[in-house]
Amino acid sequence: MSQPRTSRRRAWTALTLPALLCALAACSAGPGDDAAAPGPSASPTPSGPPGTLFDNFHYSGADDPSLAAHGWEIRTGEGGPGIKDTWSAAGAGFPSDTTAQGGRVLQLQSSTDGTKQGTRQVEVQSTGSNLFTGTFAARVHFSDKPTSGRGGDHVVQTFFPISASDSSPNYSELDCEYLPNGGWGSVGPRLDNVSWYKADPPDRVSHSLKQHLEGWHLMMITAVDGKVTYSMDGKELFTSSGKYVPREKMDVHFSNWLIDLPFAGGTRTWDMKVNWFYYKADQAVSQADVQRTVDGFYSAGTNYVNTVPTS
Fold first, then answer.
1. Closest Cα to residue 290, out of 213, 231, 241?
2. Strands of the sheet with 190-198, listed across from one edge
3. Which of 76, 124, 159, 198 has the fewest other C-beta atoms within 10 Å?
4. pLDDT in tens, 219-259
């Protein structure tokens, strides 16, 4: 079961300052400055179905101005969970991937040599805290083995909406966490789905699916009508209700981190990939309809849509 989130400090560096400087430079450049202009510039929010957020992470890199303009941050601050104060923007990238729909992914690459000094964790989150009830869906690639080095690390590959503050009186968090090698005294592999009511003291309900999940999966969380339902590839896994439902607006996070450092010697690298993220406000959308909508965005050449109200 997931550890309490009380160690998580919301200290973030989004690479927003460089991104904003690039955006400002692009706006202030004259007609003769085109040749010296930076790469992709921040694009306006396309129109689309109301209450919809979609992103297929078609960015040139962490310094692409559109990344910050579209409301994404890469964590470089302090705090937990996992190995505290080891968050690095170096682990986030947007490479081509022939196994992904559209051929592009968000890659989250964590690494460790078994020491805190040699550990790098990575997390990317949305900003604005304007996601509440509705359908959260992401096509995620989980890894059972490191891309390099020996296996066995207690790595956590996770997709979760969460409140902006751990101390909020209406704290809300909905977790999909894959632990290929287990952790917290439990063996893996397992997928934990966890609905939180409070972070401190921890108050939550959970379910574990003990199964190897190497490869791509469509992970979905629907939170409507006083009920939260977790599903994977169209199969329902767990439902929570009562007080274990969202009580305030949240951001969505994608994170690849390490619970502890069970052994030293030799660097290991772990990859988690996200093909796309889709959110539909206030509605429970079926897996088939989610995929149909996403296919439509790809067919139209639409990389990003955000029509979710900001308040």
1. 231
2. 72-74, 122-126, 251-258, 155-162, 173-179, 190-198, 203-209
3. 76
4. 999 999 999 999 999 999 999 999 999 999 999 999 999 99
